[in-house]
Design brief:
alpha/beta, Arc Repressor Mutant, subunit A, D-Maltodextrin-Binding Protein, domain 2, 3 domains, two-stranded antiparallel sheet, 12 strands, about 25% strand
Length: about 300
């Protein structure tokens, strides 16, 4: 394989017309320049320079290598510029994974800020299952994932977990329900009610079941939906009561009443996960800051 540094030395000699001038330009001794050219000739098996008056001129092989050295130099300069742009956050790609209810609430305003501050960074947001999202970050297929995690869940090696929000569940009651008269609902008061499930099995359902167990009962699910809008529709139709997190109630059904829950208050904990050390990327750092800012209204 040809030595790129020696090719650039050859190019300097050809452009300046002499070993002495090239040495002065590069800050080397003439002897060092001659040694580099000789070593390159050994690599190629061809004579690259020949005497021309008081200087030197390239042979056909020398001229060929000089042209390629110029192309390499141009590409290296382009690579340095591209790396500088990437380092400064002017270019690049940001792959995100998230779950549905944080899309319009936390993620949309955060991405708008990233777009303003890093307009040339390509953004790739996709819905993903929390387990899949975490794996994608670990493999390097995604830069950041917004997930629900238990407070006591062990951290994966090489992954940094950033707390964003404790998202409390709210009681969703049909209009006219007796418990709607108060501002706050004790969770135990919902023990005898038919329930509409709003969460699939997993980290979002666990806080509900744990809170109900702490209140002394297990909810009787008569209908289930993994979509908050549909769950609200079931409640409005009188099928039962439900618990839906605050972020999931950004669009409220007119036929339901929302009340705070206590004793205990179920909460799901939302985190951003990134690879350890990757927060130095400017666009990713901006996204993390913007996500934190988005949580303040909740």
């Amino acid at each position: 394989m040809l030595d790129v540094r020696r090719m650039q030395v050859l190019r300097a000699v050809v452009n300046s017309g002499s070993v002495t001038a090239a040495a002065a330009h590069l800050g080397y001794t003439p002897s060092a320049i001659s040694q580099q050219v000789t070593a390159l000739e050994k690599e190629t098996g061809l004579v690259l320079l020949e005497r021309a008056g008081r200087g030197v001129a390239p042979t056909e092989a020398g001229l060929l290598l000089t042209r390629y050295a110029a192309v390499i130099s141009e590409h290296l300069a382009e690579a340095e510029t591209a790396l500088a742009d990437l380092r400064a956050g002017r270019t690049g790609r940001l792959a995100l994974r998230y779950f549905a209810s944080v899309g319009p609430t936390l993620l949309a305003p955060a991405l708008a800020r990233v777009r303003r501050e890093h307009p040339r960074v390509a953004i790739d947001p996709r819905l993903a299952d929390p387990d899949d999202a975490l794996s994608e970050v670990g493999r390097g297929d995604a830069d950041l994932a917004v997930v629900v995690r238990r407070p006591d869940e062990a951290h994966q090696e090489g992954i940094r977990v950033v707390h964003l929000l404790d998202d409390a569940y709210q009681a969703v009651l049909p209009s006219g329900h007796p418990l709607a008269a108060g501002r706050v609902v004790d969770l135990a008061d919902l023990a005898g009610e038919p329930w509409v499930g709003s969460e699939p099995p997993g980290p979002c359902l666990t806080p509900i079941l744990d809170a109900c167990a702490a209140a002394g009962f297990s909810p009787d699910f008569v209908a289930k939906s993994e979509d908050y809008a549909t769950a609200q529709g079931f409640v409005a139709a009188g099928l039962g009561v439900s618990l839906i997190p605050r972020l999931g109630l950004s669009a409220r059904h007119p036929g339901v009443i929302i009340r705070q829950v206590r004793h205990p208050e179920p909460v799901r904990t939302i985190h951003a996960v990134i690879r350890a050390g990757s927060s130095q990327q400017p666009a990713l750092r901006t996204l993390l800051e913007a996500l934190k800012d988005s949580t303040r209204q909740y």
